């Protein structure tokens, strides 16, 4: 089964099935997709996604991004607006306390997002939809613009909740860098001179190991464990976590 789905009109579209978990199971195929921009999906790409079973699309982009580069619509899936930005601001303060001005550019942003009350609400919404996606042969796709930062955090949270180890999660995150090599489409689609310059800079910055591991560190520091974070920040208690594993692993 292909991990990278080179569908025309999509940026950085990837399958999340097949990863092993600590429980001895694997994540089901045809249930979870992560992606960047999908505003230019072609008829052939839509046909593929219909056969794949896509029913839910979660859009992490800002309202402006959603208006300027609207997702391709279709009758077989529903699009859910779930902006991660703008943040409330409390997450940046918390991230700054534990970093003491010694952090990578992306790492600081990622820590800010997972600690911020607005960022947490966005991912809580994602997890609630993941619980709804319980029928067989139906899939959910979550995405932002590059499919690296907001989506990368989403994938980290979902994979870790399902029991995938940190090393595998990090490797999945770093796969995005392969998509950036000699790709004019990414440059043209994401580095928009009229767009938000902070988001532009993030989109065009390659991922690195420190950035993703810093998220684990921030969650452990403030919540004690990832399970505590799931429960108190995202509303996923032990019962819901079991439901998620029943839906997405086998």
From TrEMBL:
Gene3D superfamilies: Protein tyrosine phosphatase superfamily. PROSITE patterns: TYR_PHOSPHATASE_1. GO terms for molecular function: phosphoprotein phosphatase activity. InterPro entries: Prot-tyrosine_phosphatase-like, Tyr/Ser_Pase_IphP-type, Tyr_Pase_AS. It comes from the Bacteria. Belongs to the protein-tyrosine phosphatase family. This is Protein tyrosine phosphatase. It comes from Companilactobacillus kimchiensis.
